[in-house]
Amino acid sequence: MMRRSTRLLPSRNALRRTAVLSRGLKTTDPTRKSEVAPEMSRKPSIPYVERLKQEKDQKVERLPEEYEDEHLVGLTGGEIFQEIMKEMKVDTIFGYPGGAILPVFDGIYNSKDFNLVLPRHEQGAGHMAEGYARASGKPGVVLVTSGPGATNTITPMQDALMDGTPMVVFTGQVPTSAIGSDAFQEADVIGISRPCTKYNCMVHKIEDLPRAIREAFYIATTGRPGPVLVDLPKDVTANTLRKPIAKKYPQLFRKRVLRTKNPMIRRACDAKEWKRSTPKVVEMINKARRPVIYAGQGIIQAQAMEQLEKLAEKGNIPVTTTLQGLGGFNEYHPLSLHMLGMHGSAYANFAVQNADCVIAIGARFDDRVTGRLDSFAPQARAASRRGEGGIIHIELLHKNIDKTVEVDLALEADCGEVLDEILPHIEFADRKEWLGMIDEWKEKHPFTYYKNEGAGTQCKPQQVIEELDRQTRNIKDNVLITTGVGQHQMWAAQYYRWTLPRSMITSGGLGTMGYGLPAAIGAKLAAPEKIVVDIDGDASYCMTGMELMTASEFNIGVKALVLNNDFQGMVKQWQDLFYDERYSATRMTNPDFVKMAEAFHVKGLRCSTQEELPEKMKEFLEYNDGPVVMEVLVDKKEHVYPMVPAGKSLDEMVLGPSA
């Protein structure tokens, strides 16, 4: 069978011979005198040197210089993996072994350089890596075997891609000689993972392994963070490196590389382009009578929270955030509008719809935020037609600009860089009428619910979140919250007050049930000194509840707060409102969550009534001897409000059960 050559470039001597032949000259015996003129044979002509210099100047700015990696000679692929992990300053790996990846697990056996955490499922490993990355800002690392081990990481990778979470996944693969033969546990992981990664590759020879790993970390943390997959055939990781190799870094961008305050989140953008637009941004903001800032996770990734607050205060501009942007602006600030969108605050949605200038910073105009597109921000669009306002979009990722909402002015750049540029030119404005209008909306349409009356009644789920918020109010800087996906996620966003970045860790774009518990485990490993609480629903918790065994085995002190309404609550809400209460496959038959926890050697608590809640919550938060689970029996009929129904605009919200 013919093999494709892996050599892409001819040798230097071959190039020299080709150059000679192209001039119509004969190649000669090296012992004979050259038939080429001395000035031609011994050194290139001056114009040629100048041309090379020009080409070099046009090339991408180089990262660290290449050099020979001699210290890796004599190591197996698995041992090289360990060495590069140390070089990348990895301290935690979430891994599940199998035959195809055993050489790597053997290479890191008993390593004292990082923690190896064994989950109970590869999906759990992926979500743990996400939680670790979101809490620390560093890429989470996953190590799994081939076939089903690899395919089980697809959901976490897609989740990380949609939410901009840096993650590097290493998958085992059958030996290169067996690829394509349908060998045991073979899967086309590269083909399967291509749509859900920023980049993926298979390493075909051991000489390429160091570079592939370094590139994976570079790509995962460059630009908008995301997941990268490296597929490792077993023969590559089992082989031994016999000769030195060049240490090469990827040359990915033709634009200038800018480093933000967070060295793990590097940016690539051309300052000349966006700086031309900043005077117009300043003009639009200063002229606006009813501006609003709509901030997303990009603010947190750029560590531009301080600049955002300065912009809001200097311009007297109210701020609303996305689900993933929670914590990017202190919600106790008088200019805070809390979250906007499908289940956002009524006053945030009204503000966006009535603003004459919408300033979107580090956000992507997700459908859960915009509602019906043709009716999004109508007053800003009208102001744009009059030349008095419009929609401004500051976003790092090019594909997010004009993807759903056509904007008037877009700056493809790092949020912090842009805010630093425009802040000195923003004028103070009173905006008394605009802020007064917003205060009226806040007073008329707060987040609210009807509490159950009488002794011995069940808690309302909103009440549980409020109690958690009350008891952690003075220690918010020491608390991280993760959530699953469902009603509990939205109640957490609404009734907990978010004051700090990276304090809310949740699945936004993909909406992955089961995210909360493994993400909490990863977050706790990234920040062991902090209280990490997983706010979960019974259905979401059951998706990955076996990871409680992981927390128990490694004594990872996460706290799981399970709101149990015996339903897939968010789906049931839609069935209540739009399907005449036909509960098709949404009722849950749950285990006893306390006994389940105790079976895993974990402390279990249960709260059945409103009267018990304060003391039970206190015991739950103060327990420090390992992981703990508290089940709270909550009202089954409760819905999440406000709610923007599908196909409706932001100001067509259902405000409550009587609305």
From TrEMBL:
InterPro entries: Acetolactate_synth_lsu, AHAS_TPP, DHS-like_NAD/FAD-binding_dom, THDP-binding, Thiamin_PyroP_enz_cen_dom, Thiamin_PyroP_enz_TPP-bd_dom, TPP-bd_CS, TPP_enz. This is Acetolactate synthase. It holds the Pfam family TPP_enzyme_N. SUPFAM superfamilies: DHS-like NAD/FAD-binding domain, Thiamin diphosphate-binding fold (THDP-binding). GO terms for molecular function: acetolactate synthase activity; flavin adenine dinucleotide binding; magnesium ion binding; thiamine pyrophosphate binding. Keywords: Amino-acid biosynthesis, Branched-chain amino acid biosynthesis, Magnesium, Metal-binding, Thiamine pyrophosphate, Transferase. Residues 484-632 form the Thiamine pyrophosphate enzyme TPP-binding domain. Residues 23-42 are annotated as: Disordered. NCBIfam families: acolac_lg (TIGR00118). Belongs to the TPP enzyme family. GO terms for biological process: isoleucine biosynthetic process; L-valine biosynthetic process. Binds 1 Mg(2+) ion per subunit. Residues 76-190 form the Thiamine pyrophosphate enzyme N-terminal TPP-binding domain. Residues 29-42 have a biased composition (Basic and acidic residues). It catalyses: 2 pyruvate + H(+) = (2S)-2-acetolactate + CO2. It comes from the Eukaryota. Pathway: Amino-acid biosynthesis; L-isoleucine biosynthesis; L-isoleucine from 2-oxobutanoate: step 1/4; Amino-acid biosynthesis; L-valine biosynthesis; L-valine from pyruvate: step 1/4. Its EC number is 2.2.1.6. It comes from Lotharella globosa. The lineage of its organism: Eukaryota, Sar, Rhizaria, Cercozoa, Chlorarachniophyceae. Its cofactor is Mg(2+); thiamine diphosphate. PANTHER family: ACETOLACTATE SYNTHASE CATALYTIC SUBUNIT, MITOCHONDRIAL, THIAMINE PYROPHOSPHATE ENZYMES. It is an enzyme of class 2 (transferase). Residues 280-422 form the Thiamine pyrophosphate enzyme central domain. One of its GO terms (cellular component) is acetolactate synthase complex.
